[in-house]
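User: Please predict the structure of the protein below. I'd like the answer in structure-token form so I can feed it into my own downstream comparison script.

Assistant: Understood. Taking the following sequence of 133 residues as input:
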Amino acid sequence: MKHALLAAFAVLAFGALPANAAQDWRAVTVAVPKTAAASAAEMPILHVTLGELPRGTTILVEREDGTLLGSVSPFGIVPGHAAGTYSVPLHASDIVAGKVTVHLAVSLSRNRTRAPSTAEVPSVSVVFAPAAK
């Protein structure tokens, strides 16, 4: 009992886990359908497919080093329906050995995140689109 009280006090005194704690995001590795250097006329894009989400949910998409690639914040979600597929631009350097690894997180509040479930983010893929000139 004494140890449980000390542990609870430590959490209250020193705050919650750090923002980059393992349970705060989900790592997803995606195979890239072709080489990134296939053509300078194309750019890689990450497609993030979202399932049912509560209103106001924001999904953060980060590189492995924690750099923010983008965020997805669907607007006008119909309750009980999937939120759709959204695009996040990638840089060719994000592709390493034919794969892209990203960290996905649900933003709960200013400094709190949690890992999305597979129902909330059922799939992530990489596609190529014509590059802007």
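That's the full token string. The radius of gyration is 18 Å.
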